[in-house]
Design brief:
Oligomer: heterodimer
Order of helices and strands of chain A: HHHHHHHHHHEEH
Strand order of the largest sheet of chain A: 1-2
Radius of gyration of chain A: 26 Å
Number of helices of chain B: 12
CATH class of the largest domain in chain A: Mainly Alpha
Number of domains of chain A: 2
Number of strands of chain B: 0
Radius of gyration of chain B: 24 Å
Order of helices and strands of chain B: HHHHHHHHHHHH
Helix content of chain A: 55-70%
Distance between the termini of chain A: 51 Å
CATH architecture of the largest domain in chain A: Orthogonal Bundle
Largest sheet of chain A: 2 strands, antiparallel
Strand content of chain A: under 5%
Number of strands of chain A: 2
Largest interface: A-B, 60 and 61 residues
Structural class of chain A: mainly alpha
Structural class of chain B: mainly alpha
Largest sheet of chain B: none
CATH superfamily of the largest domain in chain A: MetI-like
Number of helices of chain A: 11
Distance between the termini of chain B: 6 Å
Chain lengths: 312, 323
């Protein structure tokens, strides 16, 4: 399969730009932060100002610094869990799609079981069991429980690739199974792997924030969910401290939207019918114009004068 | 019927898997967290309840694992999930049976509503593709990226007051049961339901829209147009009906995810449902209740999946083909 290089669409560009900004903050947020996120001060519950961009907490902590420092944990858990889940999904999805017989069916059933079992309660139970779970443990737990969607998609695609001519040809040519999977099948799954990776990153970020917000186990590092946990614990909205609360939520939504925008672009590679952008009006050789409706085969109606003359 | 039997077999297997996970996880709890909790209550707990907790958490070390497992299954088949520490001395099943209707009502109504609305909008968005409607898609993904609970908190702070809606409880405490209680509950449910619907609609919309776009390029759509059928008829009877299939099969699967978000919404609105119980149980280290909730929620999700399968059989004749 050959990809022609196209300039990414506006959506993808915006999504990537936001992701790059968040990644930058994840790496350098701690040194960019104007204050120590945990340090108390006398500026208690102040609304946003030049000194405290996002205001302060009930202990005088700077919320802007908390958000900056917390970005690392969010991005780390999101991407670490995403990578882990994607690796598991590729292994399970491709083997269950490529292997015939009982083994393939059994692995597919296993991934369906993991899809159906509600993830959040399971993750809560497991993180509860692990003492002092830090970011690593959370990422591993989320990764190990969220691979099933991707595995299901990859299996379906592998099943359809397995019987294509180029795979059959490689088989007939005596290629080893490993080589067929690595060289013939995997490259054709790139887009689906990427899109399921992004989906898992979104899920992992949401889950980590939910866990921190609920206060499950000792999450020691700052993250956006932790900010919301404190805001909720101190009744921030009831006392009118909206600044405690709005930035973290908007950051989550912004990160989620950026990931979704990148996914739009990947979807368009997987399914070319989703692409837009062809000319809406086409001109026929006899000078007439027809409006193209994207995705439909245009039907040219007969010339009205001819119909009016009533030849037949 | 073969499809039907296969699905039933799958659910039986999943149920067994969930029960087994529930059996092994507490056996990994380090230290004797449960033991110490029982110890604290030693005087108050009767010996039968202690025994049932021993079986649930594998505290009886003299037994082999298979025999522990057997006893566990026997106990579950009697519907005994142990006693809740947090709501001492109520059994877990009592706590759950009072919480479950709230959660089922909330999740059931909101999921079905957002599925219907999202799918309907998705049909239009897919049909009108290439027009201004496409510009709205990033907005829907922004809405679905907002955490449920965050939107819920915003709704409590900024919507409840102006609209004169109650923000918590699920019902007015001390209300006399009667006709007005239904209206009261409905009023309390508006904000939580709205939060969930707004954040979950985008997903359905997008998947339906993408399927519509894929389906409209099929030959049978062109044929239907060429036959001179009206646009509305082609859209609903030819395109939407076929595009709907993946959404329906995804419906049950998505429930597992919806459940998690709804739990946090319950906490925000202090709705006395399963989610609130779970969050309280976590902070109170109420292990029997946590285990029980996981099991009951899994069973509920499996049941919903089964209903989605029935709907699928009605919509797609191919599943009924074999007879």
């Amino acid at each position: 399969m050959k990809f022609r290089f196209r300039l990414p669409s506006v959506k993808v560009t915006v999504g990537l730009a936001v992701l790059i900004v968040f990644t930058f903050v994840a790496f350098f947020g701690a040194s960019l932060a104007p204050f120590d996120p945990s340090a108390r001060s006398n500026d208690i519950l102040q609304s946003p100002s030049a000194k405290h961009l996002f205001g302060t907490t009930h202990l005088g902590q700077d919320i802007f610094s908390q958000i900056l420092v917390g970005t690392r944990s969010v991005m780390f858990v999101g991407f670490a869990a995403g990578i882990l889940a994607t690796v598991i999904a590729v292994i399970i999805g491709v083997t269950s799609g490529y292997l015939t017989g009982f083994g393939g069916e059994a692995v597919a059933t296993l991934s369906n079981v993991f899809i159906v079992i509600p993830a959040l309660p399971l993750i809560v139970i497991v993180t509860n069991v692990i003492p002092n779970s830090g970011d690593w443990a959370i990422a591993v737990v989320i990764g190990c429980t969220s691979w099933a969607w991707g595995a299901r998609l990859l299996r379906a695609q592998t099943l359809s690739l397995r019987n294509r001519d180029f795979v059959q040809a490689a088989k007939a040519g005596g290629e080893s199974t490993w080589r067929i999977v690595a060289v013939e099948i995997l490259p054709n799954l790139t887009a689906i792997i990427a899109s399921s990776f992004i989906g898992t990153v979104m899920f992992a970020v949401m889950t980590e924030i939910a866990l921190a917000y609920v206060g499950v186990s000792g999450i020691s590092e700052w993250n956006w969910g932790e900010v919301l946990f404190w805001a909720q614990g101190q009744q921030a909205l009831a006392i009118g401290a909206w600044w405690w609360f709005v930035p973290a939520g908007l950051c989550i939504a912004l990160l989620g939207t950026a990931l979704a925008l990148v996914n739009f672009g990947i979807d368009e590679i997987v399914n070319p019918r989703l692409r837009g952008g062809s000319k809406a009006v086409i001109r026929y050789p006899d000078g007439r114009k027809a409006r193209m409706r994207l995705g439909f085969t245009p039907v040219l109606t007969p010339r009205t004068e001819e119909a009016g003359r009533g030849g037949r | 019927m073969r499809y039907f039997a296969r699905r039933l077999g799958f659910y039986a297997f999943t149920l067994w898997a969930a029960i087994t996970i529930n059996f092994f996880i507490p056996r990994l709890i380090p230290g004797n967290a449960v033991d110490s909790l029982i110890e604290q209550r030693r005087g108050e707990v009767d010996s039968k309840a202690v025994e049932s907790l021993n079986i649930l958490f594998g505290l009886d070390k003299h037994q082999s694992l298979p025999s522990q497992y057997w006893h566990y299954l026997v106990q579950l088949s009697h519907g005994d999930l142990g006693i809740s520490f947090g709501n001492f001395p109520e059994p877990v099943t009592t706590v759950l049976s009072s919480a479950l209707p709230w959660t089922l009502g909330l999740i059931g109504t909101t999921t079905i509503l957002s599925f219907l609305i999202g799918t309907l909008l998705g049909v239009f968005a897919g049909w009108k593709r290439g027009t201004w409607v496409d510009g709205l898609l990033p907005a829907t993904s922004f809405l679905s990226s907002i955490p449920y609970f965050w939107l819920g908190l915003i709704a409590v702070a900024w919507l409840a007051g102006p609209l004169g809606l109650p923000t918590s409880g699920g019902y007015t405490v001390g209300n006399i049961p009667g006709w007005n209680i239904a209206g009261d509950i409905l009023q309390h449910m508006i904000l939580p339901a709205l939060t969930i619907i707004v954040t979950s609609i985008g997903g359905w919309l997008l998947s339906m829209r993408n399927m519509m776009v894929t389906v409209t390029a099929e030959d049978y759509i062109t044929v239907a147009h060429a036959k001179g059928l009206s646009g509305a008829r082609v859209m609903t009877k030819y395109a939407a009906r076929n595009a709907l299939l993946p959404s329906v099969s995804g419906f049950g699967m998505a429930l597992g995810l919806v459940v998690g978000g709804t739990f946090l919404v319950e906490q925000v609105f202090s709705l006395p449902g399963v989610g609130l119980q779970l969050i309280n149980a976590i902070s109170g280290h109420d292990y029997p209740l946590i285990q029980g909730i996981f099991l009951v929620v899994t069973i509920a999700v499996l049941a919903a999946n089964f209903l989605a399968d029935l709907a699928y059989m009605v919509l797609d004749p191919r599943t009924r083909k074999e007879g």
